[in-house]
Amino acid sequence: MGTIEQRGAPRRRTRLPIPVIDTMTDQILGQLGNLSATGMMLIGGRAPNSAAVYQVSLSLPGADGAMVLVGIQEQWNEPATTLGQTWSGYRIVAINDRDAAQLDRWLEHAASSEY
User: Fold this and answer.
1) The CATH number of the domain where 56 resides is what?
2) pTM, two decimal places
3) Domain total of the chain
4) What residues form DSSP beta bridges with 18?
5) First CA to last CA distance, the chain
6) What is the DSSP string of the chain?
């Protein structure tokens, strides 16, 4: 039996390393694994706190260096296949209109590009 996709929005994988920065600590929370209009998966060196909310920034490739600010909440995390790494899923809980439009443009472009 196959797995049924339960996400509300299609996610786009990233081929280039995109660090996601916790704006409260200026530390890298993780590297972007995939991204959608409603959530993201990060690959990091430590598991986040359960249900924690983070304010993060990321610079999307091909977006003229524009920084996108997003509020995210941890939904799940599990050990990655690489020792010492963790996969973590987040739901986007806050984003302003300008950044949402920038994210939508990137997602549309990423569907057919090298990003």
Assistant:
1) 2.40.10.220
2) 0.85
3) 1
4) none
5) 31
6) -PPPP--SS--EE-SS--EEEETTTTEEEEEEEEE-SSEEEEEESSPPPTT-EEEEEEE-TTSTT-EEEEEEEEEEEEE-SSTT-EEEEEEEEE--HHHHHHHHHHHHHHTTS--
Question: Residues for the chain: how many in total?
Answer: 115
Residue-wise pLDDT tens digits, 44-72: 999 999 999 999 999 988 766 678 999 99
Residue 94 lies in a domain: yes
* Domain membership of residue 58 as a residue range: 13-107
Of 105, 75, 92, 76, the C-alpha closest to 20 is 92
- Single-letter amino acid, residue 28: I
